[in-house]
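Run log, item B.
One chain of 101 residues. Sequence copied directly from the ordering sheet:
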Amino acid sequence: MKILTACANGSGTSLMLLRTVKNTLEKMGYQITQADHTSISEAKGIARNYDVVFTSVPFINMFDEVKKRGGEVIGIKNVISASEVEEKVNASDIPTKFKKN
């Protein structure tokens, strides 16, 4: 699975979110083939290259193109909350789209 995390500025918050998401998905048994973090402005142009985009809740509507092509866009409130990431992943289509190791 190719994942992208995005936040308003692109450095600190998106990196923290990436670490949380990557660790959580791997603990859940998913294989991550690519994991990147960036700013919202850059993410809008590259998100189509990823299976799943994780971003702050206020920005999820900026990634409608990803949803239209069958990708997942997941809004996260607390970038360091593994339990929130796990809950949102389980509530999404990820469990049906991607096999666990």
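Observations after the first pass:
- Residues 12-27 form the longest helix (16 residues).
- The domain at 2-97 is CATH 3.40.50.2300 (Rossmann fold).
Flagged for discussion on Thursday.
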